[in-house]
Amino acid sequence: MTGYLFRPPWNTPESRSGRPPRPRTEKLPGMLIERDVAVDVTPGEPVYIDVYRPDTQLPAAPLIAWSPYGKHNPAPIGILYPRSGVRPEHTSQITTFEAPDPAYWVPHGYAIITADIPGTWYSQGRATYCSPEEARAFAQLIEWAGTQPWSNGRVGLSGVSYLTTSQWRVAELSPPHLAAINPWEGWTDTYREVVRHGGIPETRTSARCRCRAAKSSGSTSRSCRRAPGSRPASGCCSSCRART
């Protein structure tokens, strides 16, 4: 892997409520949950996934959510974003951020797979977001899902934002077991659509993310990576807001 610039992590999985992998099987009514399944998407570099599938003998259609946000990360969208129109009761407690809700899809015969992408949380490898290397790793997970004993062999993809953009990237590779994608609320060009709209630097969302990264790692306000001269965002801490 060449041509990439890497920086040290701003925080640790533990600081964001992550826990080391502990493979196990859990049960809910009508549902089996396989936690922390290791899948080698690159030789010797497994990613960790959770699988939610029907507790029956019938084959299930896999739906994969390929996420950097943490498969353990709950998504009370109605609470996090009150103006979103999503009520707290619209998603279950086992829904992860921007991913499909297993409580809805599993009773309809689907198996939900939530994956921690390479280089994030406890998954191995290097994080190269939206890269060809990441797409190839995603394709390997699709092939894994399409060949499991409980799978019907027809794999779908779903999710919002980053989970959409990654669908387009892997669909370009045409994995044999990929049957459908469900991309919505994503972007196709990170430079033009995220960080440089019309050539104008984006300083709001990125500032918020950087401030939260500094806070979650226990850093002082001087470690907040808001761009000099940019406006504090709604998620910035009070120290960041006071800093000029």
Write the H/E string, N to C: EEEEHHEHEHEHEEHH
Which structural class fits the helix and strand makeup? alpha/beta
The CATH homologous superfamily of the largest domain is termed Alpha/Beta hydrolase fold, catalytic domain
Task: Kindly report how far apart the N and C termini lie.
Answer: 39 Å
Q: So, CATH architecture of the largest domain?
A: 3-Layer(aba) Sandwich
SS strand fraction? 15-25%
For the biggest β-sheet, the strand order reads 1-2-3-5-4-6-7
Number of domains: 2
State the helical fraction: 10-25%
Summarize the biggest pleated sheet: 7 strands, mixed
Tally of strands: 9
Number of distinct helices: 7
CATH topology of the largest domain: Rossmann fold
Radius of gyration based on Cα positions = 19 Å
State the low-pLDDT regions, or none.
210-230, 237-244
Mean pLDDT: 84
> What overall geometry do the principal axes of the alpha carbons give?
globular
| The CATH class of the largest domain | Alpha Beta
Supply database-style keywords.
7 helices; 244 residues; 23% helix; alpha/beta; 7-stranded mixed β-sheet; Rossmann fold
Structure description:
The protein contains seven helices and nine strands; from the N terminus they run ββββααβαβαβαββαα. β8 (196-197) and β9 form a beta hairpin. The strands form two sheets. Strands 1-2-3-5-4-6-7 form a seven-stranded mixed beta sheet. α3 (132-146) crosses α4 (162-171). It has helices spanning 77-80, 102-105, 132-146, 162-171, 190-195, 205-216, 238-242, and strands at 24-28, 31-42, 45-54, 61-67, 110-116, 155-160, 178-184, 196-197, 200-201. The model is unreliable at 210-230 and 237-244 (pLDDT under 50). The termini are far apart. With 244 residues, the chain is an alpha/beta fold.
